[in-house]
Amino acid sequence: EVQLVESGGGLVQAGGSLRLSCTASGFTFSYSWMSWVRQPPGKGLECVATIKSDGSQEYYVDSLKGRFTISRDNANSSLYLQMNSLTAEDTAVYFCATSGGAVWGKGTTVTVS
Amino acid sequence: VVMTQSPLSLPVTLGQPASISCRSSQSLVSSDGNTYLNWVQQSPGQSPRRLIYKVSNRDSGVPDRFSGSGSGTDFTLKISRVEAEDVGVLYYCMQYTHWPYTFGQGTKLQI
Fold first, then answer.
1. Among A36, B85, B93, B106, which residue has the least CB neighbours within 10 Å?
2. What is the pLDDT of residues A75-109, one digit of tens each?
3. Minimal Cα–Cα distance from A87 to chain B, Å?
4. What is the mean pLDDT of chain B?
5. A62 chain-B contacts, CB cut-off 8 A
6. Is B53 near chain A, with CB under 8 Å?
């Protein structure tokens, strides 16, 4: 079964950090560009970071201002998002997805107080 | 790239067709000749599900009442006959030709 499972969300104080993880199965993770997409409560979807299949290039939305880092471990079919200096505006459900949108995880909730 | 959907709320009648428009602020034709425009569906409390990729290709398991069309900057999602399971759901267009990848605001089908 093709699957993405996120973990690592939770409640954090403003200024704090969190590391999200996403584990893939059922498809060739090492061939796939991967993205993190977030959805604030009651709002739309925003793709915040993307990484090439081999990890050689990372892309970030400008509004993050260098606070987030995307990374991957192809040997373990895992994707990560390190989030620093969190603010209330980062409160959202964070989805892991293949960059073409074919596969989505169920999401993990990040709440910044 | 700004993606603009219309309408944002679409009154529908079961069994009747429905159509959602999506316009991009610049062409979505990639340097490789492909147009990376998807349509995704999101039910309340669920993660998104891709319905259509590269403008008009239906994903596996997607009912054939869903179809996508368009080119350049103008795209359309059509539902040939709206069913009850299509209502109360959000539909987003999404482009991944240009970074940052961007989504439309979402369109909700309502009775």
1. B85
2. 999 999 999 999 999 999 999 999 999 999 999 99
3. 21
4. 97
5. 100
6. yes
